[in-house]
Each structure stands twice: as C-alpha cells, then as structure tokens.
Amino acid sequence: MEIKQDFDIGRPLGKGKFGNVYLARSKENHYIVALKILFKSQLVKSNVEHQLRREIEIQAHLKHPHILRMYNYFYDEKRIYLILEYAAKGELYKELQKCQRFPEDRAAKLMFQMADALAYCHAKKVIHRDIKPENLLLGLNGELKIADFGWSVHAPSSRRATMCGTLDYLPPEMIAGGVHDEKVDLWSLGVLCYEFLVGRPPFESKTSNETYRLITSCKYSFPSHVSQNARDLIQRLLRRIPSERLPLVGVINHIWIQEHVQKGDQVLAREPLSAIQLPIFAEQDFCASD
Question: Is there a binding annotation on residue 28?
Fold first, then answer.
C-alpha cells in the first residue's frame, strides 16, 4: 500500500507533536477515512514508539460503536500511516468549549455511551487510563467515539503501577503511586461527567500541588444548576477507595442515565475479539463520498 497511489488526501483534520491527521478517500472505492501520518523521527526522539505500538495493538482489536475504529496501518522509511474511522463532528473538547457546558440530557447520553464502551474495554482486559474530553471525538450523529488509546494497556493481571494520564483526571491511587486496576477509569468517568455539566473538572486549581491535595482529599463542590440525580452519580464514582466506586453496569442503569436515554440508544454492539475481522475498507464502516 502506498499513500499517493491508494488515497486522495484532503484537508487537515488536526496537527500534533508527532504528525498530522488528514481527511482521505480511498481511490479504489471512494470511502472516506481519517489518515493519521506520524513521523518516526519524532516518535524516536520522544521515546514513545512503545506507546504507539501498544495503541495500535489495542485499538485495532476493539470493535464497538463508541470506540473509533482503526482499520489498518502501514509505514515507509520515514512515516507511519494509521487508517482510522472518520468522526465527522470532530473533537468533543472543542464542542464543550463552544457550549461551555452540556445540558443534562446530552451529558447523560454521552455518559451512557462512554460507560458502555468502557464496559466493553474492561471485558477485554483493556484499561484506558487517560479519559478526558481531548481524547474523545463525535460521529456524524453526535455519538461519542473514544479516540486515543496511547496510555491504555491490556492488563490480564488487572493491576498496574505506572503513573500516567492527565492531572485533573488522575485518581488518588495513581497520585499515591500505588498499584491500580480498571477502577481508575471509573474515577475518570466521574470527573468527565462533572466537566460535561459544569464546564471544568472538579479538582481544577491554580497549582498542581493544590490539585493533588484536592484529589487526595476528594474535595469538590457542585454549582446549584446540577441536578440531585446527576450529583448522586458523580458522587458514587468519585470515591477515594476504588472498590467503593459504582461499577459500569451501575452507571448504565443509574436513574439519571435512564431518565435521559431512549430505548433506541441502548442497542449496542457486542462482538468478541476472536470474531473481529479487520478489513482495510468495509462499506458499513465508512460514509460513502460522492
């Protein structure tokens, strides 16, 4: 596979430290994809080749309506090319900035989609470890897509001791440097829900030390506009002791989620890893272009 022979390259969708993302179209069948082009020299310089390898290995084997698909990858002497699902409505972070905060019905639907995607990941022994708005995209109908698995890990043993992720979203056990398991994602889900409803994370402060202190003491407050049911869900997720956090099935069935989610939203994909096929292009996975 060669980039210029196989794709028409369109407008840039984003730029990052290690490369760029472009809208692209397969010349063979005209399907639209996002083409992520990474520079090997930058990856080596920053010593993140292992992180990219892990991201490819994990994301290529996950198939769920709320996880961005990675269809294939290839490389040449200088670059690595990732063929990704195109999320037509772009970055959730920018949408949240534009709206300042989401109304509760929208936040609840996004939380439902996020919880279901994480339940799928955890069933495959995949811990994400870096949930935040910057790592989420929106599909054509505004549906959520988890897009960045750079910090995720496939952990059959279920317990890790590496500190990673973003400060505002780190749970107490990771700040303390102890071992952690998939319950770190439950804490981050609570932080995400708060940010959806308030427009900022609950432990945000002027200094890192103060943020650390607020997280370890689990000290935060709600603005008056946040409903009691939404508060209840967030409080059940933001528990200092990991085993006390509401499990994902509890999130999905929580009264605040259920009162905002329509029955049609609850038809979700379930497919074991062993059954997943990874074609370069599959018609049902792409928006057809003209």
Answer: no
**pLDDT for position 178:** 74
Q: 130 an active-site residue? A: yes
Residues 196-229 have pLDDT tens digits of 999 999 999 988 889 999 999 999 999 999 999 9
DSSP letter at 31 equals: B
Positive/negative CA dihedral, 36, 163, 168, 102: positive
Give this prediction's pTM.
Answer: 0.83
pLDDT, residue 266, reads: 57
Strands 70-75 and 32-39: unpaired
In sequence order, what are the beta bridge partners of 145? Answer: 137
Q: Parse the chain into domains and list their residue ranges.
A: 3-86, 91-266
- Per CATH, the number for 3-86 is 3.30.200.20
Task: Name the nearest CA neighbour of 143 among 262, 283, 32.
Answer: 262
Catalytic residue among 116, 130, 168, 185: 130
What is the structure's pLDDT at 154? 40
Q: Which two tokens stand for residue 17?
A: 């430290």
Q: Give the integer Cα–Cα distance in Å for 257 and 101.
A: 17
134 among annotated binding-site residues: yes
User: Does the annotation list 89 as a binding residue?
Assistant: no
Q: Cβ(162)–Cβ(191) under 8 Å?
A: no
CB atoms within 10 A of CB 48: 17
CB atoms within 10 A of CB 12: 10
Identity of the residue numbered 112? F
**Which regions in the chain score pLDDT beneath 50?**
151-165, 267-290
The pLDDT of residue 164 is 42
Q: Which CATH class is domain 91-266?
A: mainly alpha
